Amino acid sequence: MSVKMTDLPVDDRPRERLLRGGAATLSDAELIAVQLGSGHAGASALEVAQRLLTEWGGMEALALAHPEDLARAKGVGTAKAARLVSAFGMASRLEATSAAPQLLTSEDIATHARALIGRSRTEKVAVLIADGGSRLKRKEVVASGTAKSCPMPVREIVATVLRHDGVAFAVAHNHPGGDPAPTPADIKATALLRDAAQTVGLRFLDHVVVTAANWRSAGSRT
């Protein structure tokens, strides 16, 4: 016979234990049961949760399940499937954010840029997109040129940052010849980037020039 959550003593119910002692006090099945909220005739939310974990092979595999597959499971349905997918999605985003490296210094920017374009035999421009905490969200090559030059596509850079919901960004380009010293054109490009960022409300971190072994800033950080 199935035991309903409401039949349990208040102190033994997963939701009350969660509020009292935190998520760490609950098992995987209990955490899922809290998201489900209820079961179905003949099975409690906890029993449905345990069945989901068994059928999918654990929490990690369940987190990758398609919403439509979850919705077809007995006792789940569309609304509960959406709650599960949303909970797993929030956990995934939080994990990605906490693990993301931060762009706190020009050297941080140069380290990631050198790995991306430092050894290229032609000049390339890369944008490093960050969130409000200066955590790196994405890095992308936005322009390629010749061995001696590459256009600085300011509009494309800003559009790329906005398209990926960036709050801050840095720009880097490489000097294939091996000398990271910024040219007058590089310094001018830095001023244009700073102005463009200010116009659209983005925070401009820096513009660095990288080679395979070295780097230099083409403008002070703001």
Measured by DSSP, the beta-strand proportion falls in 15-25%
Number of strands: 5
CATH superfamily of the largest domain: Cytidine Deaminase, domain 2
Low-confidence stretches: none
| First-last Cα distance | 66 Å
Using the CA coordinates, give the radius of gyration. Answer: 25 Å
User: Can you identify the CATH class of the largest domain?
Assistant: Alpha Beta
Strand order of the largest sheet: 2-1-3-4-5
| CATH fold description of the largest domain | Cytidine Deaminase, domain 2
- Class by SSE composition: alpha+beta
Total helices: the number is: 9
* Overall helicity: 40-55%
How would you describe the shape? elongated
Feature tags:
222 residues; alpha+beta; DNA polymerase, domain 1; 2 domains; 9 helices
Brief write-up:
The chain has 222 residues and is of the alpha+beta class.
Describe this structure in words.
This protein is of the alpha+beta class and 222 residues long. It folds into two domains: 5-99, DNA polymerase, domain 1 (Orthogonal Bundle); 106-217, Cytidine Deaminase, domain 2. 46% of the residues lie in helices and 15% in strands. Strands 2-1-3-4-5 form a five-stranded mixed β-sheet, with helices on both faces. The chain is elongated and about 75 Å long. The protein starts with 13 loop residues before the first helix and ends in a 5-residue tail after the last strand. The model has no long low-confidence stretch (mean pLDDT 86).
